[in-house]
Amino acid sequence: MKTEPIQNYKYIFGPVPSRRLGTSLGIDIMPYKTCTLNCVYCECGKTTNLTTDIKEYVPIEDVKKEIASYLASDKNIDYITFSGSGEPTLHSKIGEIVNFLKDNYPQYKIALLTNGTLFYNEAVINGVINADVIIPSLDAASEKILKKINRPHSLLNINKIIEGLVLLRKKFKGKLLLEVFIIPEINDNKEELKKIKDAAALIKPDRIQVNTLDRPGTEADIEPMDKASIEKIAKYLNNAEFISNNKRGGKNYFNNDTENNKEKILSAIKRRPCTIEDIIKFTGIKKEEAEKIINELQERNKIKITKLERGVFFH
Q1: Are strands 207-211 and 175-181 parallel, antiparallel or unpaired?
Q2: C-alpha angle 233-237-242 in degrees, rounded to nearest 5
Q3: Number of separate domains in the chain
Q4: Judging by DSSP bridges, how do beta strands 49-50 and 207-211 pair with one another?
Q5: How far is it, in rounded angstroms, from Cα 261 to Cα 133?
Q6: Could you tell me if residue 279 is inside a domain?
Q7: pLDDT digits over 245-275, tens only?
Q8: CA quadruple 183, 269, 289, 246: dihedral sign
Q9: Per-residue pLDDT tens digits for 65-95
Q10: CB 94 within 8 A of CB 29
Q11: Which of 293, 287, 248, 285 lies closest to 16 in space, CA to CA?
């Protein structure tokens, strides 16, 4: 594929520091908030297109051109990750992108962040079978809690989702990490945790990872779980790993080009809210420069502010 330089990327973003994947280049192949779920904790906001329709939502050739442009020279990244502001397995040609990356850029590992709802469809599994890491979510193992936390499309139910994840594990030979998002007083009770543990025993992931609120979510009344409680839950769930706030990884990849840094900051916080400390960590630029960019973006009404216990988030 001919590689022509692209100034402003539409479908790729970052690299960003990931708590699990080091330095990750994101691929976002879905229109904003097109998803099978409308999770109460989603950092991207409310789902505006709740659907299970699998189709080519964005032009696959345009995505390939952006990838080729960015990876025309070797990049210091750990993973290329399907994530962003929608559910990537809804895209009918995600498999073509996975294979395009494997054929042309085998030096990079591929990860998929997914809500895990569509793997009952074997075509979806076949599309991502060549990824290196798949991280699906399972926040509930009962219909009642699924509807309370994840608010799924009407065609989905908990049995269908769990059966799909079991099928994924049988066919997928890469690393499978099962993420469980804990919300106090909703899915942290003994009954629901036992059901999640039993479901995980059927799915057989390589590891369970527990998470809790770290950034502003969709619903303002959702609170994070305290560290001691979530570590206790992690231990109960087969010594799961707690994805704590201080495990943010990644290498510095920004330079001293203010305009370039500005675009990359905007691209990152468009998809997930960040504090000034987060921005400094993944940009490697001085605090004064980061604050200057943030202040300018605020003055231009490009960003919004939300205050949480962990700090002030820009999104």
Answers
A1: parallel
A2: 60
A3: 2
A4: unpaired
A5: 29
A6: yes
A7: 544 444 444 444 556 667 667 666 666 667 7
A8: positive
A9: 999 999 998 788 999 999 988 999 999 999 9
A10: yes
A11: 248
* Nearest-angstrom CA–CA distance, 275 and 313: 4
Question: What is the C-alpha separation between 176 and 207, in angstroms, rounded?
Answer: 7
Residue with token string 């479901």 = 199
> Which DSSP state fits 7?
S
pTM of the predicted structure, to 2 decimals: 0.81
Q: Which of 46, 45, 155 is nearest to 90 (CA)?
A: 155
User: 30: closest CA among 105, 72, 83?
Assistant: 83
Q: Do residues 227 and 280 share a domain?
A: no
The answer to whether residue 1 is domain-embedded is no
Amino acid, res. 14:
G
- Per-residue tokens: 219: 């619903």
Boundaries of domain holding 294: 266-315
Q: What CATH number is attached to the domain comprising 299?
A: 1.10.10.10
Residue 7 lies in a domain: no
- The two three-digit tokens of residue 133, written as one number: 């890491």
Nearest to 182 by CA among 107, 243, 99: 243
Q: What are 25's two structure tokens?
A: 């280049």
Q: Please tell me the distance from the alpha carbon of residue 97 to that of residue 126, in angstroms, as a whole number.
A: 13
Domain boundary among 201, 218, 251: 251
